[in-house]
Write a structure and sequence with these properties.
single chain, alpha/beta, Jelly Rolls, metal ion binding, 8 helices, 4-stranded mixed beta sheet, 2 domains, two-stranded parallel sheet, IPNS-like_sf, IPNS-like_FE2OG_OXY, iron
Length: 289
């Protein structure tokens, strides 16, 4: 269901193709054990899973805002070696987070006939859905801008550098519902991929495994409990030109691997291909490299 300001809510059957199926909950309600053959992932495409959740870097945003140099170094290492980190002390009130979780959960619990109704912008049920999403999105926007500032500092630039490059931050929200699955080891909610946004801020259920992070070469759908995740994609305007930053190019070997390209064109080209690792970055590589 398309929503205002790029917001989306979707029910997803776990699939390596990341396709959206409108009646996913109805299919699961009819049979909790049946999984269509085309949703079973090839053995070679399944991630090699190991319990590394305790090793994922944890970044304290309040320390970053206090200009703590050690925390800034942790952020730099997290980006270089993981490309992923958890954020604590972000300042988003627990009430706002819980309200977002509760109202989106209520939406997905609605009868199928109610959920498939398309309005111009927002569903009227649950009645507080619009307010919950707008309040949550406003807080995520604040956190995103703070992170962009600290990322700028970690790369040796002025704090406002990355934010200025965006012209004005665009933000898109996608709320996904992943049903229970009788074959969690054989089915993926989404194929292995890297997002095309500048950064993605993800909120998911605290006590339900499902998210996989690829690290050093090596949780999917859950067998007993459905999962909801809210992904906020932070990106520049479509006409912003993106290219390697001078600070990131080795002065001893100034050859650039990627070309200058408008973000909108880069995004458009990446969406034409199947989500697969970092394959979308090939669209921006120079042909001579």
């Amino acid at each position: 269901m398309e929503m205002e300001n790029g917001n989306q809510m979707s029910e997803q059957v776990p699939t390596s193709r990341s396709s959206v199926v409108a009646n996913v909950q109805e299919m699961v309600r009819r049979s909790t054990s049946y999984v269509p053959e085309n949703y079973i992932t090839n053995q070679d495409d399944r991630p090699n899973c190991s319990p590394v959740s305790s090793d994922v870097p944890v970044i304290d945003l309040s320390l970053l805002d206090g200009r703590n140099e050690e925390e800034l170094k942790k952020l730099d290492l997290a980006c270089k070696h993981w490309g992923f980190f958890q954020v604590t002390n972000h300042g988003v009130a627990e009430e706002i987070l819980n309200n977002m979780k509760d109202t989106t959960s209520s939406f997905f619990k609605l009868p199928f006939e109610d959920k498939k109704k398309k309005l111009e912008y927002w569903p009227t049920n649950p009645p507080k859905l619009k307010d919950a999403i707008e309040t949550y999105s406003s807080e995520v926007n604040r956190v995103a801008k703070s992170l962009l500032g600290h990322l700028s500092l970690s790369m040796g630039m002025e704090k406002e550098a990355l934010l200025a490059m965006h012209k004005e931050v665009m933000q898109s929200l996608r709320v996904n519902y992943y049903p229970t699955c009788s074959m969690p080891d054989r089915v993926l909610g989404a194929s292995l991929h890297s997002d095309t946004s500048s950064i993605t801020i993800l909120m998911q259920d605290d006590d339900i495994t499902g998210l996989h992070i690829r690290h050093d070469g090596g949780a999917v759908t859950n067998k007993t409990t459905a999962r909801i995740s809210s992904a906020s994609f932070i990106m520049p305007y479509h006409d912003v030109e993106i290219e390697p930053l001078d600070q990131m190019v080795d002065p001893q070997n100034p050859l650039k691997i990627y070309k200058k390209i408008k973000y909108g064109d880069y995004l458009k080209e990446s969406l034409k291909e199947k989500l697969e690792g970092k394959a979308h970055t090939m669209k921006a590589k120079l042909e001579t490299v």
